Every structure is written in structure tokens, then in C-alpha cells.
Amino acid sequence: MSTENDTVKTPQKSDYDDKFGSAEQQETIEKLTQSDYKWGFTTDIETEVAPKGLNEDTIRFISAKKKEPEFLLEWRLKAFRYWQKMQEPHWPNVNYPPIDYQDAYYYAAPKPKKELKSMDEVDPQLRETFEKLGIPLDEQKRLAGVAVDAVMDSVSVATTFKKELAKHGIIFCSFSDAVQNHPDLIEKYLGSVVPYTDNFFAALNSAVFSDGSFCYIPKGVRCPMELSTYFRINAANTGQFERTLIVAEEGAYVSYLEGCTAPMRDENQLHAAVVEIVAHKDAEVKYSTVQNWYPGDKNGVGGIYNFVTKRGICLEENAKISWTQVETGSAITWKYPSVILKGDNSIGEFYSVALTNNYQQADTGTKMIHLGKNTRSTIISKGISAGKSQNSYRGLVRVSKNADNARNFSQCDSLLIGDKCGAHTFPYLEISNTTAKVEHEATTSKIGEDQIFYLNQRGIDTEDAIGMIVNGYCKEVFMELPMEFAVEARNLLAISLEGSVG
Amino acid sequence: MLSIKNLHVSVEDTEILKGVNLEVKPGEIHAIMGPNGSGKSTFANVLAGREEYEVTDGEVTYLGQDLLDMAPEERAREGVFLAFQYPVEIPGVSTSHFMKTALNAIREHRGEEQLDAMQFLKLAREKMQLIEMDEKFLHRSVNDGFSGGEKKRNEIFQMAVLEPKLAILDETDSGLDIDALRIVANGVNKLRSSDNAFIVVTHYQRLLNYIVPDYVHVLVDGRIVESGDKNLALRLEEQGYDWVKDNDAVTA
């Protein structure tokens, strides 16, 4: 095992201040006052593509194109001006060449994909992957861009779902639709958890976000279905700057799944999404992610930079927010789904599997900010490094001085496959209340030759053996996933590890 | 079935096996006995294809094929089974999932149909009864948190599910109390047929009271120095290994 394989650093508080989140980020906990800003817009909206580059005109163009109300344009512009003063952060344990933000298009109408007539026209390699993942045929067709027959027409399915949801008063639509139809809710909650001042990429997203999803569960309503199903059917081009907002009113419940196990290719290299969750009293939001963006080739060429800000707030007592993520894609992943535990007795959970292979880099983890009394958080992180990849867990548990009897349990495990990869753990603890109970467990292990041999000796080949061992290692996290995705996620891990053993 | 000629094996440049010869026919049970460090476990592991063991000379033919040329999983699929001395824990993987995958890999190799979950569960339950194990072990992670005795019984359960042609038991008796020993032996005896063969590697004679061998071989310092019937085991029990150590190497 190389020395690089096994780094555990215990950072000091001063480290945290400049390395893991800026001072601005910490202000998030308090409400941000936004100064009034008036700005009319006169942008020509004849063209479909904004000129290359990023300036105030681009933003006005986007906002006008989307017929946004004035408050939103102002918010975008404030975000842009703030972003201009910011520096791209370099504290994550990842390396990439500088990004030229002026050398990109920030608005283009989605290009319709060429529709194929049957599965026979689909790339055989892609078909094979679908088979391995166990994705149903109709969905395979949709993902590959094959015309679906009338019965399984995705639009009609979507309509059926929409009717069912509407019956319960649930709003679930694209972010753009929500801006048009529910501007009051957007104005109230947009930026309330992740303000545009939060960080460099969140500011950029706030200025130029293309589209995303909005979900609102009214008081006392338990969403009758996984919003995943619907989402997968509508996972159209939401663009590289996606924005999601989920609001659960008092006593509401929703389970939401983002992403897809199928390989996602995208021409945009930089993805900077923002997800905000607001959980009111007694509300529960379960947010699951499966991320399988293009990771680049075996030599580390290409691949998506996935720089995401995800945060939820348990606004009032007994609220619960649970993040579950399975991250196997992207060349670089940089995300910390977090929970602000403001309400007394509120609960935050983070379950993560992050797998890196070849030259992938991941710096991911969570922040649990305990503000209310008797707040509890659980962190289970499973990192898997293979090939020449680098995989870091970075997590913060902060107990503020009023958070009496706060409890946290963290378990961060790293599994290494081969001896050219790296696993790193950066746990940060900031405890300002003596009644807090905080437990942290961390392990680093190498996938055992003896385990592989044991499975080989029972007739299982090495690739399947590794898949089986890794899936067993991730079981605690997969148990948190909705059933149908747990199966696909298991297959996905096995596929992502293909070729990791020489 | 199995023909071993002049087998030399090294581990990290130290020669452990120094010319072992053995012939095993279907229906036979061979016991390999010997003092600690004589090479018994190396012998068992090299037949199963463990990588760290380097064959420096000799040949092993199994059902007409060059066994040493086959990958461990190929050997398993062709019916070679090793009951491990130290069964390995696989956290998070249920015993039923593990065994279903293994059995279906072997069945695929044989050109047989795959068993679905229900068919497999029915079979697994029968085999569990054979070794008097509670069905709940099927749902537990492989060997994870099992006692020493439970792990050994789990090995025999796996053997019962996979129905190997050649089963090698590597000190399956070590760490077993007398009841567990009887259960394990009973399981092996029920699996015995005229088509399969067993190689039972053990330090002590007591297992052989329950699994009666056709041949007993004494391995000392990497060579089989004495071969005989079950009475040889009894003599070793009474007199220890010292008297055979002085004998010259003989061919089984």
C-alpha cells in the first residue's frame, strides 16, 4: 500500500475557516437580507442562442427568454455581480485545468435529439449496459431516444402522474413552470437555503440557471409515489446549471429521486447544480441521487465536472431530511449535501456511496449543522477507489452553543481496489456545546485477496466477486434507496468497476 | 479422477511441497495427515488454485485436464471444492445470494438451467437441514459474526449445495466441538457417492472416526512418507508423528 493510500488528516478549526466553505457560507445559517435592486430589461429575444460569454446582457437574455418576473431577474443579476467578485475555490482535493467561464454558451434552446425508430438502431454497447442495469425496455427506449408506442407514451404517463399528484395538492413541475405559475412560492423559498452568496458555483448557478424541478407538498400530505418515476420520464435536457427546490409543509412527506443509473453523456463539461430543501414542522424529505455522468475515458480524457451545492433545512421542530447518494460518474465530483438542523428534535441523515475508477476524482461528504435542541444526525459514507482515482470524504459536524443534547454518529469507510488509488478522510468537528455526543468511526481497507479467492473457489469469476464484495460493503447505504433503484445501483457499481482488476 | 505426480510447490521462494504423488479415484476418501508445518494446507490450497503458491515442478491431472493450467473459478466449476480452514467473512453479502450466484455460475458452465430465487431457496433449505443449521443463516452475511463452528458448518453447507466431484476439506475439524464434528461428518457421509471423492486434511485422527477413509497418507516435510488404510491413522494417534518422520519418503 502506498503512503498515499491512507491519509487521515485531523484539521484544525482555522483550516476549516478557509478550506471547507467560505465565511460567506457560514452566514447562510442566518437569514440573508437582500438589498433591493431595480433593473428593467430590454433584451432582444429574437435569437435562440445567447452569445458566447457571460455578462449582464447574457443574464437579461436568459431571463427574458424565460419570461421571468422582475424579482427573479434582479436576483440573477445580484448573484452575477456577487460571483464576479468571488474566486473559484481550490480547497477540494481535486485537480483540473482552469475553467474559462467566458468560453461557453449560457443559453441555448434544447436541441431535439434525433429520434430512432427501434432499439435495433441503438448503439449495441449502450443496449448492453441497459441490459446489465436491468432497466425496463420501455424506459430503455426512452433513454436511448427511441419512439415509444402509444400505450407507454411518456407524455400520457406523465399526465396520469400529474393528475394523481394534483389530487393531493402536490405541485411538481419544471422550475420554469413554477416561476410562471407559482411565483410567490419561488420568491419566498428560492435562495433561502442556498443563497447566491453561498459559494462560487452556487452564485454562478443563481445567475445563469437553466431549469430544474420544483416540488411542493402541502400541509399534512404524504406524497403517494416516489417522485422518481415521474422524474425519470421527464429527465429531459435540464442543462448544465440545474436548480431544484423542494418544500415540504407541516407534516408532509416526500421521497424524491434525482438522476438515473443509465450512462448520461453531455457535451457540457461543467455542471454546477443547486438543490434546496425546506422541511417545516414534522415534515420529512428523503432525497436520493444516483449520479452516472460521463466519467471520462480510461486515460482520464473528458468527463463531467460535477460541482454541486445541495442543502436542506429542518426549519421547525421534528423535521427530517435524509440524503442518499450513489456517485459513480463524473470526472470530478465536488458536493456536500448538507442539513441545517434548526428546529428542535430535527433529524439529518447522509448516506453515501462514492465510487471512483481510472482517473476520476471525488471530494464529497456532508455538513450537519446542529442549531436546535435534541437534534440528531447520522453520516454513513462508503468510499470506493479503484484504478488511479482519488476519493476524499470531507465532512463537518457543527454543534452550536444552543444545540443542547445534540447527537451525531459518523461512519466513514474507505475501500481500496489496487494500489494506485487514493482514499482520504477529512472530518471536521466543531462542538460548542458540552452536552453534545459526537461519535466518529473511520476505516480504510483494501479489498481482500482472500475474499476474492474464496468467491473464485465457489465458481464466481473475479469481476463478479469484486462486484459482490463492494455491494456488500455498500449495503447499509443501498438499504436507504427506493427498492427499484437499489437493484439498479448494485448493477451500476459492478459495471463501474469493470476493468478495475488487471 | 485426480493424479498428482512429483508436485513441488514454493511460497515466497521457500519450498513447501517437495515431490508429492497421489492418485484419487471416484468414490474414494483420502485422508492427509501430518504434523504442523508439514505442508498439508499448502497441498489443499494449491489444488484449489491459490495464487501465492508457486508450482515449481510436477503435474496434476484432474478428469483428464491439466488442473494447474486452470483458474480457481474454472476448477470450482469443474467440480473442485475446498472447505477452507479459515472461512472468509464477506460483510453485507447474504449467504443465500452468495450461494445462488455460485451455484448458477457452476450450472451455467455445465450447460444447465439457472435456478430462480424460489428454486434455490427450496434447495438451500434442504441442505441446511442436512447439516442441522438454522435457516436464518441463509439471510445473514457470509460468515460475518459466525462462531468458528458455524463457519465450518457453513463450508459443509456450501459443499452440499454445489455438489462437487472432488472435495478437499482443509482441517474442517479444527475448532469443532464433538457435536459439531459429528454433524459435519454426518453431512459429508450423506454426500458420499461412487461418483465423487474426498481429500480430508487433518491433524487429528478423531474426525476419521466419523468419516472413515479408504486411504491415509502421512505428509512430513513436504513429502508423503507413509500410506496405509484407516489403521495408520490410529497408529499415529497412539504413537504420534515421530516414528514416521524417520522413514524415507515413499510413494503413495
Biggest protein-protein contact in the assembly: A-B, 23 and 31 residues
Low-pLDDT regions of chain B = none
Largest pleated sheet of chain A: 12 strands, mixed
Class by SSE composition of chain B:
alpha/beta
The CATH superfamily name of chain B is: P-loop containing nucleotide triphosphate hydrolases
Order of helices and strands of chain B: EEEHEEHEEHHEHEHEEEHH
CATH topology of chain B, anyone? Rossmann fold
Say how many strands of chain B there are: 12
Task: Give unreliable regions of chain A as ranges.
Answer: 1-19, 28-47, 147-156, 229-238
Q: Figure out the total of helices of chain B.
A: 8
Describe, in plain words, how this protein is organized in 3D.
The complex is a heterodimer of chains A (502) and B (252). Chain A is an alpha/beta fold. In chain A, 27% of the residues lie in helices and 28% in strands. Chain A has a domain at 3-35 and 112-335. In chain A, the strands form two sheets. In chain A, strands 1, 2, 3, 4, 6, 7, 9, 11, 12, 14, 16 and 18 form a twelve-stranded mixed sheet that branches. In chain A, α3 (56-65) packs antiparallel against α4 (70-84) and α8 crosses α9 (183-189). The two termini of chain A are 17 Å apart. Residues 1-19, 28-47, 147-156 and 229-238 of chain A have low confidence and may be disordered. Chain B has 252 residues and is an alpha/beta fold. Chain B has a single domain (2-86, 148-245), classed as Rossmann fold. Chain B has helices at residues 40-48, 72-77, 95-109, 117-130, 148-162, 178-191, 230-239, 242-245, and strands at residues 2-11, 14-24, 29-33, 53-62, 65-66, 80-83, 90-94, 141-142, 166-170, 197-202, 215-220, 223-228. Classes of the chains: A alpha/beta (502), B alpha/beta (252). At the A-B interface, α12 and α13 of A face α2, β7 and α3 of B.
Question: Main traits of this protein?
Answer:
heterodimer, A: 502 residues, alpha/beta, 12-stranded mixed β-sheet, 7-stranded parallel β-sheet, 19 strands, 28% strand, globular, disordered N terminus, B: 252 residues, Rossmann fold, 6-stranded mixed β-sheet, 4-stranded antiparallel β-sheet
